[in-house]
Every structure is written in C-alpha cells, then in structure tokens.
Amino acid sequence: MKRREAVQRLGMSLGAMVALPSWAHSWSKEQFNGLEISNEELLGSIVETIIPETETPGAKTVGAHLYIARMVKDCYSSEVQNQFQAGLKSLEKLGFVSKSAGEREQLLQALENSSKEREKEFFAFLKNHTLRSYMSSEFYLNTYKNYNMAPGFYHGCVPV
Hints:
The chain contains seven helices and no strands. By secondary structure, it is mainly alpha-helical.
C-alpha cells in the first residue's frame, strides 16, 4: 500500500471516530424511557397479578413490566404499540391499580375469556411477554435453571 493511501485511510477513520453520533457519547436514562409513568405503574400491577410475589419474587420485582415496556417500544410496529396502549388505557379506565388482588384477577380472567378478539389478543400478548420476561430474568435463571453465563474455564497452557 502506498503511503498516501495509508494516510488518507487513517485520516478518514480518525474523522469517523470524532464525528460519532451524539447518542454514542452520552447515553442517559431519559433516552430509554418506556411507557408513561402512569402506564408503567399500571403495567407493573398487571404483571404482578399474573405472577404474584410469594416467598419468591413476583414479576414486578424482577422487572418484567420494564422488559415488556422496552420490548413494545423497541421491537414492535406502531400499530401493535397503539393496540397495546389502548389495552392499557381500557384497564386504566376500569381503575385496575386501585382494585384488590381478587378483583384484578377477575378483570384479567374477563379479558382472557372475552368475546372481543382485541381483548383476548391483548391479554394473550401481555401474558406471553410476562412469562417470557420472568423466565429470562436473572433471578429465575440463577435460581431454577442453574444458569452460568460463562460455563467452564479456558486453560490455555495445558500440556498435550
């Protein structure tokens, strides 16, 4: 390679590193907000109703509601996001957060057994993501699956 080309490539790579987008320099918690605060609280109470806390942590304790909010925001189309928000708003109108645990269960069972297809889909979506987030949480994997992120060890200097 010629020196001139090498210097040009080096200059271009240094220029690209300096001109990184702003999100690459300063990440903040505000950039990663999930749902609105009221919906986040509502979502937390819903997942806690699906997997309640007993002698083991419940879904809200392991952060399932934050996982769901993040998944909906980052991985689904705006149509699915709007349907999800509409489902949350319908539960919010019913005063889901202020109800007792038994009344919450009855409301969710009514959604599951509803004759309206949208309500059934909303509950199935929410239940599926709650279970998925709980079963992929650090607590569940370490406690029940004996998950080890890096199993075994690498011994590079072993006599052959």
